[in-house]
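Input sequence (116 aa), recorded before submission:
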Amino acid sequence: MYLASSPDWGAEDVLSAEAWKKGLIGKEKVVELFGVEVMREREHETMKGVRVGEVRDEGGEVVEGLVRMFGDVGRRAEGLCVGEEVLRAVKKAREIGGDGEGKGREFAEAFAGQVS
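Predicted structure, token format:
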């Protein structure tokens, strides 16, 4: 996934904050982008040779969680895309300072503070 944007990005660009805000990354798009397996097949209980498809609870939960996350980030993002939010968080983490150990935590806290 690219963390970049263009000044003319809008809701039709699936990786834009606007698209995320409008919920354009739904279950189908998450499955397509991330390859999360949400379906499984099993043998029908009474009809030999017939396979039944069903949603895997685990896969469905992951997909639903990602859809919620994309929507939340889109609603809270100030820039055109997540890449701008990451860049803003990196700058904020650098301002906080610190050397070596703890940098990852500082970045994560800065990023989470921006989108939460």
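Checked by second reader. The longest strand covers residues 39-43.
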